[in-house]
Amino acid sequence: RSSPRSSPRWATHDCARVLADSMPTCDAMRPLRLALAASELTPYAKTGGLADVLLGLGRWLGQPAVTDKATGKPSLTGPGHDVRVFVPYYKRIADSGVEVRDLPHGQKIDVRFPQRTIRFGIKEAKLPDSDVSVYFIDCPELYYREGIYTEDGDEALRFAMLSRAVLETCQRLQWAPDVVHCNDWHTALIPLYLRTAYSWDKLFAKTKTLLTIHNIGYQGYYPESQLDTIGLGDQRAHVHHGDLKDKKFSFLKTGVLHATRLSTVSITYAKEIQTDEFGMGMQEMLRSRSSDLLGIVNGVDYGEWDPATDPKIPHHYSLDDMSGKAKMKAALLNRFQLPHDSRAPVFGVVSRLTSQKGFELFADSIPIHLQREDMRLIVLGSGESKHENYFQWLRDTWPSKVGIYRGFQEELAHWIEAGSDVFLMPSRFEPCGLNQMYSLRYGTPPIVRRTGGLADTVQAWDPGAQTGTGFPFDEYSSQALAGTMDWVLRNWRDQRGWQQLVKNGMSQDFSWDRQGPEYVELYRSLSTHR
């Protein structure tokens, strides 16, 4: 356990106490000091949308302040903040050759756990196209492995160490964050560590914590004995008692118990995770903290995802000139060696091939349409073998209508968004989802199940009123998906109406300029929290 006695001498110097004591309260005009901590960050280490969100939000928060035209003063909810990002320095980052520098006075730092002492160093880089600092936690014995996540016996220690190292790095920087923004279970122990092992340090006296749940399906469960390993053995009173009775504990549940505030990545998902159907065992806890739980839809980085400027596609287009969309369709079909017919719609899929994404619904719907309709289906993804094998069967059965790429390729994901006419995303549950927002921007109306962020971002097409952006459905069944595809195909035949649908979607704004201010308002409310 860290304490004034066991910590480095510099940590107890008077200058640290003076710094903390002299810090003004977080008034409405002062730029905020924000620490963003996570296990992933684009472009350095990514397995899912969390990495993209951390990049987009961090980069937006760190942009120069925007002046409020009415007052002539910096915007209260705009960017211009002192934001710093903390992630592990994985082997894949070290091997990538990314340019980093060792942080002075940030090397050979020892973190004491009950059974061992772990040494780490701090490396620094900048987020691409920004001045935001990224601090990499360089600990080869824990992070120099082939994968970001492992099944190794010390996995709990790997991410407990990340939580400790974030706070240790702030100490070395002599930088007191107003808010530590924790993301998912991997950094969810930070609130408890602040209350216990680091409670002595006045540097953190005014620091508040926000825990964002990106996917409640991943809760970081480990045997109760691991509490001793990660230095929380004497804090069992602060861990979920029901789990302890079952001889286990959860990183995420611990974070929910102790974070100042909670958020998740869409308005609807914030409601869903408080229900028995979607709460995955945490619904009662979340209902007890419902007043502290806020849903904010993820933003999209239109610098990366815009068909007018996208460097990953060969033909560009925009609302003013859509000719490149037809060229992308032809190029995509040619890439998969499928016959091109402008009248035959292309349905695209870019996804992890898991049950969460709703692919079991395809069995009694997609083959019927492939058999009777002149259509194409192009799939990019990997995951559960049963789903990979199913799509391979579709390809083998209809080789002139189906294309599949097993795995992931970033460029091909952009091609499919741009070259498809319809995007398929019938998820069983979806905390937020990004691909449906990419699809709208690329003029590719999505089929989605009305859940989580899909419900918040896709509005049903009404051909009479010429409003709406896509094709949501409610019931989780193959019949509902099949009926929705029939609905899509009927509207596809009305190309005048279809073009209006496309324009509606491309006109939507899910940029961080729109979503980011909601986070700033939340951070400011935290900073005045007592």
State the separation between the terminal residues, measured CA to CA.
26 Å
Strand content: 15-25%
Major sheet attributes: 10 strands, mixed
Percent of residues in helices comes to 25-40%
What radius of gyration results from the CA coordinates?
24 Å
The dominant shape is globular
Helix count?
Answer: 20
Give a count of the beta strands, DSSP E runs of length 2 or more: 18
What is the typical, i.e. mean, pLDDT? Answer: 93
Class per helix and strand makeup: alpha/beta
Note poorly predicted spans: 1-26
Structure description:
The chain has 530 residues and is α/β, with parallel strands linked by helices. It is 35% helix and 17% strand. It has 20 helices and 18 strands. It has helices at 14-22, 49-61, 91-96, 140-143, 155-173, 190-195, 226-229, 241-245, 251-258, 267-272, 283-288, 323-335, 366-372, 385-397, 410-419, 435-441, 452-457, 478-492, 495-506, 512-527; strands spanning 33-37, 82-88, 101-102, 109-113, 116-126, 133-138, 179-183, 208-213, 221-223, 248-250, 261-264, 293-295, 346-353, 376-383, 402-406, 422-425, 446-449, 471-473. The strands form three sheets. Strands 1, 2, 3, 4, 5, 6, 7, 8, 11 and 12 form a ten-stranded mixed sheet that branches. Helix 2 (49-61) crosses helix 20 (512-527) and helix 12 crosses helix 15 (410-419). The radius of gyration is 24 Å and the shape is globular. The two termini are 26 Å apart.
